[in-house]
Write a structure and sequence with these properties.
With about 190 residues, the protein is an alpha/beta fold. It is about 25% helix and about 20% strand. It is built from four helices and ten strands. Strands 3-4-2-1-5-6-7 form a seven-stranded mixed β-sheet, with helices on both faces. The longest helix has 16 residues. The two termini are about 25 Å apart. The C terminus is likely disordered.
Length: about 190
């Protein structure tokens, strides 16, 4: 990976300007409601799109039917759906040029033929190289320096301290992501 490509990936992952949440919910009892609420509670300054073809609005925001319907291509997409819709969302991310997609979905692990098929499909999206895939069991990403709380982790429902830290949950598809400059302070 070239230094420029690594820098673009880092920015899409940890310093995005636009994010989309696929499968977001209004129901505070559901895990799928947390990322939208966490972004609002942390006062993240970027643009947030919601994709949910079953709703007109989610969290007071317009809900789009698909990623292709968004006004622009998000830097980072967080998918909180079932396994097969998550695969389709990852494919759509690749088609429209989303740099990073994070997926939190069940149905990819285990010995069943369906689980193997699903994982293979997701690995094919990742191998195509247009979209970096984190998942399928990722809780999301957090960058305290950017106030980015794009996670379904309930622990982040508390106020977020400001600081220079960032974290992400590795997955089976992308086992780790490293940048030589990741520890440097914000410019």
């Amino acid at each position: 990976m070239s230094p420029d490509a690594g820098e673009r990936l880092y920015h899409a992952l940890m310093r995005p300007q636009t994010v989309a949440i696929v499968g977001a919910s209004d129901d505070p009892a559901k895990t799928t409601s947390r990322p939208l609420r966490n972004l609002a509670d942390s006062n993240w300054p970027g643009t947030v799109y919601v994709v949910n073809p079953n709703r007109d609005t989610v969290g007071g925001r317009r809900a789009y039917d698909s990623l292709a319907d968004l006004p622009d291509v998000p830097d980072h997409v967080f998918v909180l759906t079932g396994a097969d819709p998550a695969i389709e969302a990852a494919r759509e991310c690749s088609r429209i040029g989303v740099p990073v997609v994070t997926i939190m979905a069940d149905g990819f692990v285990g010995g069943s033929a369906d689980a193997r098929r699903r994982m293979t499909s997701l690995e094919e999206v990742a191998a195509a190289g247009r979209t970096r895939v984190l998942g399928p069991s990722s809780l999301g990403v957090v960058s305290t320096s950017e106030r980015l709380v794009l996670t379904a982790n309930a622990a982040f429902s508390e106020p977020l301290p400001r600081g220079g830290g960032s974290s992400w949950r590795p997955s089976r598809v992308v086992p780790s992501v490293r940048w030589p400059h990741a520890a440097r302070t914000r410019e």
